[in-house]
Amino acid sequence: MSFRYIGSKARIVEAIIEHVGQPDGGVFVDAFAGTGAVAQAASRAGWKVHVNDHLASSAIMSFARLSSQADIPFAGLSSYSDAIAALNETRPLQGFIWRQYSPASSNHCAVSRMYFTEDNAQKIDGMRHQIRQWREQGVITLHEQQVLIADLMRAANRIANTAGTYGCFLSKWQRQSLDPLVIEPAKLPESAPRATLGSQDVNKVRCKPEDTVYLDPPYTKRQYAAYYHILETIALGDEPEVEGVCGIRPWREKASDFCYKGRAAKAIERLVSSLPAQRIFLSYSTEGHVPIETLSENLAGIGDVSLHSLQNIGRYRPNKAASKAASDVGELLFCIDKTKQAKCVAA
């Protein structure tokens, strides 16, 4: 994956899966899937995986990473590689992304939104339209559609004129943003354990007592629905009413309680308590809204809790100034076993 994603666990996935252990007959439920790094590591370890994220873009990206060559034969287009080649030859279209997120936006609003060059924006529109047409005509399956949408989001992200998120665009074109958009096929295994997909509020995610649930809630005030709004639009293929200089799509219905300092502690405690799963793993950061001591005390009332320090990783750095000022933050993993007497032990 080529995403610089806020809170990404890409560098510590092996440490997380080491604590999770080998498959035990249940499903590994990644309830805040993000870009799917942890879910993919669990799948590679042999787990059947269910990925969920309230953002459709994140859910689709995660699910695509769990796919195998056997899941997407692309019989209607001969092969996966042929489908990618056909997409790259798709005729550009002056559609929604071009109108709203390229300099063409200056034709109908007061700002030239420099997220994508006009050529690349038209390619995104043309490719997304082609994917929709193939699905409507029955040329591709739902699973194949989701993989192609993930491929398109990954390609668009590589040439986006941003500092890593889509909360704003840069005022000058960066070198990579002037490159032509080209979709590259994902490297998929020949086969993989069964995977399923959900895109709903985390409090509605279903699981069974024998399942293992992994939670990676937002730590800070950054609302993912606003920071990754263009990827969400590409994923959904819709044309929402956008507003402001940056053309952000409506996002407040997906605002997360975990991003509010006054709500985060109760939101985490309530979620962990409500899950039927007996084994729950919770990632959290030392820079999070909830102090680690408070979180430890709250979780200790739910089950047997062990706390593990994984490693220090760099704070999210959207630009050079932030890189110079940023310090490392500690990544922690709470292991909660509801079958045992409540207590908390730091490892």
TrEMBL record:
InterPro entries for the chain: DNA_methylase_N6_adenine_CS, MeTrfase_D12, SAM-dependent_MTases_sf
Catalytic activity: a 2'-deoxyadenosine in DNA + S-adenosyl-L-methionine = an N(6)-methyl-2'-deoxyadenosine in DNA + S-adenosyl-L-homocysteine + H(+)
UniProt enzyme class: transferase
UniProt keyword annotations, A-Z: Methyltransferase, S-adenosyl-L-methionine, Transferase
Gene3D superfamilies in the record: Vaccinia Virus protein VP39 (3.40.50.150)
GO biological process: DNA restriction-modification system; methylation
Signal peptide per UniProt: none
EC numbers for this chain: 2.1.1.72
GO molecular function: nucleic acid binding; site-specific DNA-methyltransferase (adenine-specific) activity
Name the UniProt record assigns to this protein: site-specific DNA-methyltransferase (adenine-specific)
